[in-house]
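Lab notebook, bench 4. The sequencing result for the construct came back, and we need a structural model before the next group meeting so we can plan mutations. Quick request posted to the team channel:

Model the 3D structure of this chain.
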Amino acid sequence: MWVPPYRSRTLMMAIFNIFQTVGFYGFANWVPTLLIKQGITITTSLMYSSVIALAAPIGPVIGLFIGDRFERKTVIVVMAAVNIVCGLWFSQASGAVLLVSLGVCLTLAGNIISYSYHAYQTELFPTSIRARAVGFVYSWSRFSAIFTAFLIAAVLKHFGTTGVFVFIAGAMLIVMLTIGLMGPRTKGLELEKISR
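Done. Here's the predicted structure in token form:
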């Protein structure tokens, strides 16, 4: 995984995994707190969070219909952009319907990114190193998860809800640039061709 062309793919997916975790868990794990910081009561915040969480399994179901119809790197980039727009809008919203709708969009975008990149990263490496390479790049996601909660808490304390979503938007921008600029296309290609 450290020889061309796999070295750049390994670095790309390691960087991607670090920053996608910030976007995914930065919202999913902090929804109730972010809502409370926006003036929503604890009880209402938990109700909104429950409705938003119900959208989580819908993202992978959407994958049944779009998974092989669109280029995976494009899906990842577009959903990261959706995450940026909906997140920044969420940080400024106050109405119940708008907050829940944006929360559902953020949850769907995160889950669509998740199922897309799990398939994408396995396509990037040949059989002889696939398990090792995917294990290595995915470990950066788990490593990032250790620190994401602390970073979000610090940003929330010093910069409020808007600061958290600006932080998440920055992470999603890195996701977009990393996959958009460095990621090879895989749609309709045999794994042997992608491996070259």
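DSSP finds eight helices and no strands in the chain.
Will bring this to the meeting.
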